[in-house]
Specification:
heterodimer; A: about 475 residues; two-stranded antiparallel sheet; 20 helices; globular; B: about 100 residues; mainly alpha; Helix Hairpins; 3 helices; elongated
């Protein structure tokens, strides 16, 4: 058997495994003194990793291990976007990790986060349902450990339990679906399966069961019940990671599988997605209005954003794929900025995350308030910012395929979402507060992360070459 | 020889008993056991489909093996988290996990 393809096409995963091993060994070998530079070491490693893999090396799609692993240029783009997001999360997590009560286990944080990233990479380039399942589990099991990372906080443990039990349940249902797919088609390879799919009732059942697994990861509405609790209880750095990176990977994997594998059953999954999109966007928007805790608030906002991402999936075209990746990129910039602000304020005020605490933030911390405002504007889709363009592309992708009513519903929901995003802006700029958050200066690492996100929010939409660049690779999907 | 349908009936019963247990049990460990029932029913399905429908290949058996391994890892993490909950709250009843609601 020829193993030469491993290093030619799997370079991203191999390099990531190298980074994980290096972080693990650094944690072991470096003494108390060396561990002070742990953060810098990991960030430099990640930077090298991103610099080495950001541009796809090969222009063609290739399968190795007999087609279990499929390299595609567009998947490689998604991987580098996720890696950049992870680096930003690391930058913003630094003040929390440096604290007295988490310092001794910072190595675990890096290794666990990078393991989930590795799982997502395998999930993205899977060519076989077993590979896909292993990637999904590698992404969700360490994630449960991360959610329960604050061992001595009841909330964190509660969030972890809710996450792991829901994840187990969802993956059990997904496996049940896959087992019937195997029974009816006799293969588990993505390439061979479409030939066996006829749209029989059993296959529709397994399609729905299969969708549960990824719907859970994306927290679409019938499967969203864990989201708010887990987001609230998890440490803020983990929440931001969970809301962006894991969602982006799952959205891409879902689109690839639905379009490629379930191609003969397009009408069924389009109907299913139609219902899920309408529910996700509407229900999440209604629940978001009444939230007072900002992390919960952003949890519901992320559910509705996942609904918008599904608009690109339902189109099923290469243009939809481009707009999905672009949407994930823009959403990453905006959401990481919002969570970065929440995290740094939480660190400096001993855990204030309620919306009332943000009253009058502009008078004491104007820069943070402006950052948060721009991020929320981008999430809501207000024109000069990147969020407007990403929403526009996604609506266009769905509209071209004839989902006119669906796009109209999504548009109405955009207006509703503007209301609750502006509630936060109003709290920061207009509401009066006798004891606002004291003025503080966040550390350099967080500021660097916030500046990167802010640059993304401002520039991604205007620099049109980014969208074109992604579009260049999305032709083959 | 035992027909395939009998195996499938067993696995279906296990599957839905697991779902029922997951939704009705009020103890975290019992919920975990219910989920394990679901995962085991999947293993039976894969093995049976492979043995009866596609005896020439091994894909289903391999999938069962990997599913068993992964579910063991998941259970280990879940039990660790449940122990952590016990340390924090001194019991593992679901009704006590209501610090965050709405």
């Amino acid at each position: 058997m020829d193993y030469s393809g491993i290093f030619t096409y799997m370079y991203s995963e191999i390099a990531l495994i190298g980074v994980i091993v290096a972080a693990l060994l650094y944690d072991l070998a470096a003494g108390e003194k060396g561990r002070r530079f742990f953060h810098h070491a990991v960030c430099v490693l990640m930077l090298l990793f991103i610099a080495g893999t950001v541009v796809p090396y090969h222009k063609e799609t290739a399968g190795i291990f007999g087609g279990m692993y499929i390299y595609s240029p567009v998947g490689s783009i998604v991987k580098s976007i996720l890696a950049i997001g992870t680096l930003i999360v690391f930058l913003q997590a630094e003040p929390w990790l440096r604290r007295e009560d988490t310092r001794f286990k910072r190595g675990e944080f890096y290794v666990l986060v990078l393991s989930t990233l590795l799982g997502m990479d395998f999930m993205i380039s899977a060519g076989h349902f077993m590979m896909f399942f292993l990637g999904l589990e590698l992404a969700s099991v360490p994630m449960a450990c991360l959610v329960a990372f604050d061992k001595y906080k009841g909330n964190s443990a509660e969030a972890g339990a809710k996450y792991i039990l829901s994840a187990l349940f969802a993956s059990g249902l997904m496996l049940y679906g896959i087992s019937f797919l195997y029974g009816t088609t006799g293969t588990l390879y993505f390439e061979d399966m479409p030939a066996g799919l006829t749209g029989s009732p059993l296959q529709i059942l397994s399609l729905v069961f299969f969708f549960v697994g990824l719907g859970f990861k994306l927290s679409l509405v019938p499967f969203h019940l864990w989201t708010a609790d887990t987001y609230q209880g998890a440490p803020t750095a983990v929440t931001s990671y969970l809301s962006v990176i894991s969602k982006g990977a799952a959205a891409f994997a879902l689109m690839v599988i639905l379009v490629k594998v379930f191609a003969p059953m397009t009408e069924y999954w389009q109907l299913m997605l139609y219902i899920v999109i309408v529910l996700s966007i509407t229900v999440a928007n209604i629940f978001a209005i009444r939230q007072k805790n900002l992390k919960r608030f952003l949890a519901f906002s992320s559910i509705s954003q996942a609904g918008y991402i599904m608009l690109a999936v339902i189109s099923g075209t290469p243009y939809g794929m481009t707009s999905l990746i672009f949407y994930v990129l823009v959403y990453m910039a905006a959401n990481l900025a919002a969570f970065g602000v929440i995290g740094t304020i939480e660190q400096h005020t001993h855990g204030k995350v309620s919306m009332d605490d943000y009253n009058g933030l502009y008078s004491t911390n104007p820069k943070l308030a402006v950052t948060m405002t721009l991020a929320l504007f981008s999430l809501a889709g207000i024109p000069p910012f990147a969020g407007f363009f990403s929403k526009f592309f996604i609506f266009a992708a769905a509209f071209e395929e004839g989902f006119h009513v669906l796009v109209f519903i999504a548009l109405i929901n955009t207006v509703i979402s503007l209301y609750y995003y502006l509630l936060v802006v109003k709290a920061m700029f207009i509401n009066r507060n006798d004891s606002p958050v004291a003025t503080f200066r966040s550390d350099g690492s967080t500021r660097l992360g916030l500046v990167l996100c802010l640059a993304g929010v401002l520039a991604l939409g205007i620099v049109s070459s980014i969208f074109d660049g992604i579009n260049l690779y999305a032709f083959g999907m | 020889m035992v027909h395939m349908e009998y195996y499938l009936i067993v696995s279906t019963i296990m599957m839905f008993a697991g779902i029922y247990g997951f939704l009705t049990r009020r103890n975290l460990l019992a919920m975990l056991i219910s989920v394990e029932l679901i995962l085991n029913s999947v293993d039976i399905n894969f093995a049976v489909f492979n043995r009866f429908l596609f005896p020439g290949q091994l894909e289903g058996f391999f999938f069962s093996l990997f599913a068993i391994g992964v579910s063991a890892a998941e259970t280990a993490v879940a039990i660790a988290i449940i122990i952590n909950i016990y340390r924090n709250m001194k019991n593992i009843q679901v009704r006590n996990l209501d610090k965050m609601k709405w």
